[in-house]
Amino acid sequence: MLSVIPNPPRVALPVLGSEDLFPVRRVYCVGRNYAAHAREMGADPDREPPFFFMKPADALQIAGGPEAVPHPYPPRTENYHFEVEMVAALATGGRDIPVASALEHVYGYAIGLDMTRRDLQDEAKRMARPWDLGKAADGSGPIGPLHPAARIGHPARGFIGLSVDGAPRQAGDLADMIWSVAEQVAYLSAYFELQPGDLIFTGTPSGVGPVRRGERMAAAIEGLGEIVLDVV
């Protein structure tokens, strides 16, 4: 049976140390998962349960390697923000996954950016509308190569940060997550049947802010290296 239109390519991530690829199914993103970031966004981290939104898989932009990657500034925004995050990639899924065994489902980890048209997101918040226009722009999910957990374990602490033109903008520690990776996997699995190929962007530390055309972003996580993008 033939498709009536050309089949869209499936997004796949490079795996460090391998020629094999990791095919992506869905991209879940947790909101306000570092206390300081929750406060800078006007929320109370001590009372708010985790919440999630999604990006389309084809909004991912593969980054990494020795050279900077051109990152297109999206249309219809004058306030485009960076948010550095650790990304967890699932090798297996399920429903109602216990926290105690949740990390057994994680294949590996990568550096990611949840790029956000903040002005559109803020407008959506004011009007009680979905965040898609703010969060799901083309290329709004730059991501580096996957580091298999079989090699690096499951990072629970260590530096996470981002600089713009060499000036530090975000700096935190993975240990400052309000909800751990295991808790996020378990929580999500109560609402969705998670599947192999699902990604979870696990939240960003404080310091989010705008980036402009012509500037260079460098995002780093201890043990996962760095990705560099030139905003064009």
Describe this structure in words.
By secondary structure, this protein is α+β, with helices and mostly antiparallel strands. The protein contains five helices and 18 strands. The protein has helices at residues 35-40, 118-126, 132-135, 149-152, 181-189; strands at residues 12-14, 21-23, 27-30, 52-55, 60-62, 69-71, 80-82, 84-90, 106-113, 116-117, 141-143, 147-148, 159-164, 167-173, 199-201, 209-210, 216-221, 225-231. Strand 17 and strand 18 form a beta hairpin. The radius of gyration is 17 Å and the shape is globular. One of its GO terms (molecular function) is hydrolase activity. This is Fumarylpyruvate hydrolase. Keywords: Hydrolase, Metal-binding. Residues 27-231 form the Fumarylacetoacetase-like C-terminal domain.
What structural keywords apply?
hydrolase activity; globular; metal-binding; six-stranded mixed beta sheet; Fumarylacetoacetate hydrolase, domain 2; hydrolase; 232 residues; Fumarylacetoacetase_C_sf; 5 helices; Fumarylpyruvate hydrolase; alpha+beta
CATH class: Alpha Beta
Mean pLDDT equals 95
- Tertiary shape: globular
Structural class by sheet pairing and helices: alpha+beta
Number of strands: 18
| Topology-level CATH name | Fumarylacetoacetate hydrolase, domain 2
Number of separate structural domains: 1
Q: What gyration radius follows from the Cα positions, in whole Å?
A: 17 Å
With helices defined by DSSP (H or I, 4 residues minimum), what is the helix count? Answer: 5
Write the H/E string, N to C.
EEEHEEEEEEEHHEEHEEHEEEE
> At CATH's second level, what is the architecture?
Alpha-Beta Complex
- Residues in β-strands, percent: 25-35%
CATH homology group: Fumarylacetoacetase-like, C-terminal domain
